[in-house]
Write a structure and sequence with these properties.
Elements (H helix, E strand, L loop, with lengths): L1 H12 L9 E2 L19 E7 L8 H11 L5 E6 L2 E4 L3 H5 L8 E7 L3 H13 L12
Helix pairs in contact: 2-4
Length: 137
């Protein structure tokens, strides 16, 4: 019995502390479920976003997001369910299969997290179709 108590205490010693809480920025794109409300400070910012592009998150917006994310000293990730996409990788962004109206979580951490979150959220809110030439008829 003494050896089983010793093993139990060794197992308990290996338990790691929970990760720090996540801070969410206030939404710029409308109302979201209660789980998207701001939490206590913890070094990671999260912002719910909705894909506004008629064709979804296709090559053009994915490339623009990737180029913008690379400009900051921060690690930016888009999350859809269990899928996490590094914003600096266009191929990762395609893995999200995000159509128009898809709700994603933008997660940013690092020294320039606030600046990156603001810039990326603004780009995700833009109607990129407005600067395209009109279709030829």
């Amino acid at each position: 019995m003494a050896s089983s108590k010793k093993r139990d205490s060794q197992r308990m010693a290996r338990v790691e502390p929970p990760p720090p809480p996540v801070e969410r920025a206030p939404s710029l794109l409308g109302s979201f479920p209660a789980h998207a409300q701001p939490l206590a400070s913890g070094g990671v910012l999260q912002q719910p976003v909705i894909v506004p592009y008629a064709e979804g998150l296709h090559m053009r917006p994915a490339t623009l997001l990737s180029e913008l994310a690379k400009q900051f000293d921060a690690q930016a990730t888009l999350i859809r369910g269990d899928v996490r996409a590094d914003l600096t990788s266009v191929l990762d962004l395609f893995m999200l299969c995000a159509e128009k109206g898809t709700e994603l979580i933008l997660e940013v951490k690092g020294p320039e997290a606030e600046k990156a979150l603001q810039a990326l959220t603004q780009l995700l809110a833009q109607d990129l179709a407005s600067d395209r030439p009109p279709p030829k008829g």
